[in-house]
Amino acid sequence: MKSGVCFLASILLGVGPASARLGESPDECEKRYGRATATALNLGEELKEDGAGWKASTYVTRGLEIQVIFDDGKAVMVRYANQPMFSMGSAPSSTVNLSAGEIDQLKKANAEGAVWKPYSVRVLTKVAPGMKVWRTGDSDVFAGYNRESRQLFVCTSEFWDLVLERVRDRYEAGVDKRLEGL
Question: Residue 116 pLDDT > 90, yes or no?
Answer without folding.
Answer: yes
